Amino acid sequence: MSDLLMDPVTLNDLLRVASAPDFERWQQQIHRTGGCADPIHLQGWTTRTDKSTGEVLHHYSTQNEPGSRLRIACGNRRASRCPSCAYTYAGDTYHLIRAGLAGAPERDIPSAVRDHPRVFATLTAPSFGPVHNQPDHARCRCGQRHPDDDPAIGTPLDLHTYDYAAAVLFNNHAGELWQRFTNRLRREIAARAGLSQRELKEVCRLSYGKVAEFQKRGAIHFHAVIRLDGPDGPDSPPPSWASTELLTDAIRAAATHPYTSVSVPARGDQPARTFQWGTKLDVQPVKAFGDDDDITEQKVAAYIAKYATKAAEDTGTLDRRIGELAELDSHGVSDHARRLITACRDLDPLYPDRRLWAWAHMLGFRGHFSSKSRRYSTTLGALRQTRADYRAAQERAALGLDAREPDTVLVLADWRYAGHGHTPGESALAATIAYDLALNRETAREALRSEGSAA
């Protein structure tokens, strides 16, 4: 914020906002959004009346709000766009993944799910050419040892021989490759159990939750919790033959099977290609508790939640769609990322159905960053609804309506979109509010850790 205050335009606007008579109410709105960096502005009203008598119980209008607007959180999952909303999204993802590992009885996921075979698997992209890296106890192929913050890590040793076309086409087809992998995995599990696929469905269900992550070279890979359940999901025990060892073996076989591939036809000057997973496959059992070296439920959930709020911008590209390549000049896009984006543009006319240019900011990837199978756990929608219900109950209590049955109250409303975002001064103040909220959360977290270690 200190840098922003050095800007006279921002400073003057900040003083204008802070000296306004409705500043306190503006602060309350921003606190309610969690310090959202790009709040949605609404205008309108809502009225609550008694259904039987027609008595007006409460009326609210934005007419008396700052700027005659109500500000609500944008809900963007990307930390690069809105850290506060991304924090909420990451928290929801953490609870979703952990519920599938440790159970959540309040959401009809029994704690016995801990006893089901489950592993944490990472499937990576193949090589598109040698890149600068940090091999264990060795120098990079370039002859140097790269520090962790070296921007050269992940960039090609030779920009001119690196297969940029294959890299973005792989990203573009990664979602289909994952689908083929899960289909093959069911077959591998059935084969090891001595069952047909039809028979497998009657006794066992494959469940998973996954997140996509961009490697520094700009290639997508997936981290996934994969679990074996009974036929009805987490609330039914898996068959006696199901084990972590069987699941691990089946995953390794499915990931390397020739069927687990995606073919891309030859177009123009581009040859036909067949994509499979890379050779770096990691599969580890998930433990309920363990030492620092173990893959535990908490570590896995936190790891997946962390990457659920990130995208390709961590590789040096933009976090929004690109109109023209000229846009890259003013954003400090790296040469490697520029070449990947340019490959998307050049390939787009050859593969129009793949919409490569529309997804150039994602280096061709067009799948979901975070997804799960139907019965893995609860849903993000259910978690959001719980939060909405809690806030609605708080509001009813504040209005003195908590004693009334909800079915006896008629709610009428009229809302319309009125813009989004902050002025420069508002943005600086909102960032301060977001920082204070984050600091309070961290302080509370540290206090809980201290209590736990003392116990």
TrEMBL record:
It holds the Pfam family RepSA. This is Replication initiator protein. It comes from Streptomyces sviceus (strain ATCC 29083 / DSM 924 / JCM 4929 / NBRC 13980 / NCIMB 11184 / NRRL 5439 / UC 5370).
